[in-house]
Amino acid sequence: MNPADKRMREAALSLHALHWRDREWLLRRLLPGMRTAIRSLLKELRALGIAPEVGLGDVPCPDVPDTLEGATVHTEDAAIIDAASPADILRLFTSDAQGRLTAVLMQARAWRWRQAVWDALTPLQKKHLTEAIAQPAHDLPQAWRGALLHAYAAHLRAPHTVRPTP
Known about the structure:
This protein has helices spanning about 5-15, 20-30, 30-45, 75-85, 85-95, 100-110, 115-120, 125-135, 140-155. The chain is mainly alpha-helical and about 170 residues long. The N and C termini lie far apart (about 45 Å). About 20% of the residues are buried.
């Protein structure tokens, strides 16, 4: 096997282990010829019944406390956040690449949308969020945590505007 074939097979195996959204995102960024070759190898892996390695996609939703000690969540804010749809919550997360702000929200309460949001995250988002939740939240000032939750609620209260896609 020549080195180029070996690298293509290694790339296909790596992509095979990714969540389908991440795999498709990466494939779309390849040159057309390379994308076609790797898609063929991925198809071969599936036809052979080779299961993806257990990877980031299998990260379970971390346990978090029902309340974040010291975070003041006003009853009205909590009701608005809890009533939000998973899609609304996911929109809030789009600018939180490392999951730190999201971790504060996830730790504040046992929100009804928590599992649905977790299931919709990509493996990389799950990894970042799991790492952020593992960090102690008490290093953030109480007032800051409460203000963040209030800001999330205010954002959810605001009417959604349609933004053109770039």
